[in-house]
Amino acid sequence: MLPGSVLYYYGIYNDYTTTFYVTNDNAVTTTYFVWYALAVFIIVFALLSKHKYYLRPKITLSKHDIRTLTLLLGISILCLFIVVSIFYSFGMRNALIGSVITHENIVEIRLANRYSGIPTVIISYFIFLLHFSAILFGASIRSLSKVKKFFYFFALLFFMSWLGDKALYLYIFVEIFISHIYFISISTINEHKASRTLSKSSIKLIIISIFSIVAFLIVAQLQIGFTNTHQLVGYLMGRGVLGQIAGVYEEFGLGLHDIGYALTNLPFLSFLFNHDYFNKDLMMATWGVGLASSEDTGVMNSMFIGEAFAIGGYGLVLMSPIIVAVSLFWSHSLLYWIMRKFININRNLMKSITVFIVASTFSLAGDFGPYMFMKLAIMEILFLISILIIYKMMVIRTNDRCAKLLDN
Q1: Whole-prediction pTM value?
Q2: Which of 315, 318, 339, 334 is nearest to 374 (CA)?
Q3: Helix (H/G/I), strand (E/B), else coil: 13
Q4: How many angstroms separate the CA atoms of 310 and 66, rounded?
């Protein structure tokens, strides 16, 4: 809502905003649609979630619950190491470390990685594992030994540095802290102990905030190469005020229309259609104009109403917040149902974890595609099942060993 409000009241012409097809007139109209989409999405999602979500359920964690969380965390970290080995096999490089060592622009490494030929689904799986690991690490950090805390924290730092995505650093640190605070607040019975624990967590928040800011500035410097404070302030203003949803304003000004964009959003079938993606076409029509190849640039951030407008015009724009809200609701319901089939832990704990999973993968600056045919929900379910199958196999093997020891 902030970007829309700033454009609505101050217009588009300033030192920190670069636009291509946006005028003050269509910026106002687009802002009305942004406000509408946010309001309808929140209302519909709240109504759907009325009887499903519990914001502060009191949870008494058993030793089994804690062991399950730490085991899932270990499995998730292991899967991340396996995915990184796949990255190496495709010739990908760690974006942040590679940029520091070779002094290459981090954007060039990111683009080389993106077009290395690795299937997009593996990148998506890697990002899902990062979010899942951050949530579990924050939830179980109190029960981990100092050695494990140190190992998991720096393992997450290493994995985050692979993609060189500035926003990912912020998201992961925030997820660790919020999940940590949340699970403290719902699982602590002794109020005095809770107050003391939350005070310690406030100190951790300051440390995490410093880590987040430093990591963000390091990656931004490697990507942009600021030479003065004005450039830095301009970058932060441009990215923070408009950049995250600039695509929706450009789309409403440019008016890309192609129902074929919907084909790229079909689960398991998009590879059958040789069709360009909306966010790539939008980037090539704006910042990418004049580039020899689409592989020389990334994609443009938008909002779900931007791609909805390109696919189905104003009618789909009006329906899109309802579709997104329903998709997110069913994502949570299905993930919760899947977890209940595989693991036996406190149901409120399970419900809270699945809420965090859905929240961590949802982005207002994302496109409409992941929600149009529930593509994101289906992918999350398959990703989660891959972890739960490993968990189930390890539990069965452990039970078999225990049974043999008892027999002997």
Answers
A1: 0.82
A2: 334
A3: coil
A4: 47
